[in-house]
Amino acid sequence: MTFQDIFRKSFLSTYDTSATSTSQIAAALLITALLGLYIFACYRILTRRTFYSKSFNTSLVALAVITAAIILTIQSSIVISLGMVGALSIVRFRTAIKDPMDLVFLFWSISVGIICGAGLAEIAVLASLAVTVLLFILDRLPVARAPMILVINGSLREGLDQEIEKIVRSLSSSHHIKTRSITDGQLSLVTELRIPEENGQKLTEQISSLTGITSVSLLSHDGEVTF
Fold first, then answer.
1. Nearest-CA neighbor of 172 among 202, 152, 142?
2. Which end of the chain is less congested by CB atoms within 10 angstroms, N or C?
């Protein structure tokens, strides 16, 4: 027996060539589907965005089941596994993932499919519970309140900047002028500030009462918080 025969026999012996029973396949796919539905519910609860994508959430369940089916198919045959790798390598997904949490749930769904397809459903269940607890704890942690944006437009006159500065300083804890522009005698001022919620209405009312002010807007945003 040559070295190549020994290597080939040793390599192929690592693959289980026995056929997986129908009951095992059904059990693996059923557990995967149940965990996929669990991921579906977690995504719906943890995602509080204005535009909730039900199609993306549904795809998480289908993706877990499809991944489990692929693993069940390739785990018993090296020929099929190599062919599947070649077939999947030509697939290109170009859908942009805009929210990092979507990427977490996508990877979670694929992982559940791989683990259940490999016959390790206990690990998939324990991992899903651990991920859920971690996500809910981190979601409930308090975060710094994002600053607000004050946009002021009006006719430029002497002393207007000082009057606005005095009102903003008295009602906000901190402020920083982002942009100040003058066009044909018209002043446009954008200020980033941190202000208690109860002072927001007072701020806009007092600034709008100043002579020359045409519009005052106090905006909130969902961007990153600067500490």
1. 202
2. C
For the chain, the domain total comes to: 2
pLDDT at 7: 46
Digit-coded pLDDT (tens) for 167-191: 988 888 888 888 888 888 888 999 9
Same domain, 72 and 127: yes
pLDDT band per the 50, 70, 90 thresholds, residue 227? very low
What single letter denotes the amino acid at residue 217?
Answer: S
Note the pTM of the prediction, 2 decimals. 0.61
Q: What is the DSSP letter of 18?
A: S
Instruction: Check if the beta carbon of residue 16 is closer than 8 Å to that of residue 76.
Output: yes
Q: Give the domain range for residue 35.
A: 3-140
Query: Cβ of 121: how many Cβ atoms within 10 Å?
Result: 20
- Average of per-residue pLDDT across 132-146: 79
Cβ of 149: how many Cβ atoms within 10 Å? Answer: 16
By the 10 Å C-beta count (0-12 exposed, 13-18 middle, 19+ buried), 166 is classed as exposed
Cα 124 to chain centroid distance, Å, stands at: 21
